[in-house]
Every structure is written in structure tokens, then in C-alpha cells.
Amino acid sequence: MSALTVEQKQQISTALAARRAQLTEEIRVELERSGHEHFADLAGEVTDAGDASVADMLVDHDIAIVRRQVEELTQVESAQKRISGADYGDCEECGAEIGLPRLLAVPHATRCIGCQGQHEKMYAHESTPKL
Ligand SMILES: [Zn+2]
User: Fold this and answer.
1) How far is ligand 1, taken at its centre, from the CA of residue 119, in Å?
2) Which of 64, 66, 67, 95 is in the most buried spot, having the most CB atoms within 10 Å?
3) Largest Cα–Cα distance in the chain?
4) Count of domains in the chain?
5) φ/ψ (deg, to 5) at 43
């Protein structure tokens, strides 16, 4: 069980709310930007070239950015639900405390820094072809 005080949880809660607001705004801007700019650009390009794949490519690129933001937003919202529970602040891998500095920097973190490093290494290995 994590040793976070009520004040510390409030601090993290504030960080989560700020991150959530920031992400929501970024997603809104991104969708607006892609909607307007690309639509204007592509309306001409696509009708001239008669090729919709350029439009598809750009749309896919925008979706990738937005998808990452939405993914983080989901994690932030899930942390907002978890924060009142006794297990919030514990590493989901090893059960150790994630630690206040890390939680304030990454309030939706579910792993301690050691396990996160391990996880990222494994994840990187998965995409690296074995010789
Ligand atoms: Zn851990």
C-alpha cells in the first residue's frame, strides 16, 4: 500500500486535472487543424490528381497523433478513478511505491521507474528482429 498522504493525493489530483485539460485542448486543436487545413489543401490537390491516397495518408497521420493523445487521456481518466483507492501509487508490476516525484511528473504512471524501464526495454526488443 502506498504511503501517500491526503495532501499528496490532492497534489497529484491537481496534476491529473491539469493534464486532462491540456490533452483535451490538444485533441480539440489537432482535430480542428486537420479538419480545416488539410481539407482546404486537399480539396484542390485531390480533385486535380484524382488520387485520394494522399488525403488518406495525411488523415492517417493526424489520426495517429490524436490516437496517442486520446490514449493518454484515457490513462489520465483511469488514474483519476484509481487515485481514491488504497493501491494508487503502487507499481502494478512489483508492488513498490512509484514515488511522489514520479507521480507528480507522470500522474497516470502505473509502474515504478525501474519496472517502466524494464517494460520499455522488452517492448523495444519485441520490435527488433532477432538475428
Ligand atoms: Zn515496479
Assistant:
1) 10
2) 66
3) 63
4) 1
5) -55, -45
